[in-house]
Amino acid sequence: MKIDISKLAELTELLKAGDKVELSGWIYTGRDAAHKRFAQLISENKDLPFPVKNSVIYYAGPTGTKEGMVIGSCGPTTSGRMDPYTPDLLDMGLKGIIGKGERNSKVVEAITKNKAVYFCAIGGAGALACKCIKKCEIIAFEDLGCESVKKLYIEDFPLIVAIDCHGGNIFKSGRPIYSKQQYIDNNT
Q1: Active-site residue 166, yes or no?
Q2: Residue of 41, 75, 114, 181 with fewest CB within 10 Å of its CB?
Q3: What pTM does this model have?
Q4: In order along the chain (188 residues), what is the average pLDDT of each group of 10 residues?
Q5: Residue 126 burial (10 A CB sphere; 0-12, 13-18, 19+)
């Protein structure tokens, strides 16, 4: 399913864990150091450096840009490191998150409560992912280097819905399907 980010808020209830999507539009990057600063800004009742409502954050810290490219390798980082900060952002209207790996129960509850979605990108494929990124601009925390907050324009970025707003979770439902015993039982 192709999804324009500007329509994501209208579509989250249609998405189910396991759905494959191709996402297009503007997203923002942010990793550990940036999220710590987001939390500080929130605690001080200050604006964040991007419009949170109906936005998507990609947990990525791109490598240096090579000549002739928009961005360097840009694969997902482990999402769990942002778990302490994610519920607040979801409560502020964040609609989508892109990363890799499981999320804690508080994040899953916040995704469900706020009708948001958690997408997983393929880890280890950052060189391929950067081909879907058409524009890149540093918008905050330049001193953080690769962890600065960037505004990216993506086209047909391939993702899997990992946690949907109904509580569907591929990290829970997928284990029995892909466990070694299940595989053996189905192939003997």
Answers
A1: no
A2: 181
A3: 0.90
A4: 96 96 97 96 97 97 84 91 97 97 97 98 80 94 94 96 96 69 57
A5: buried
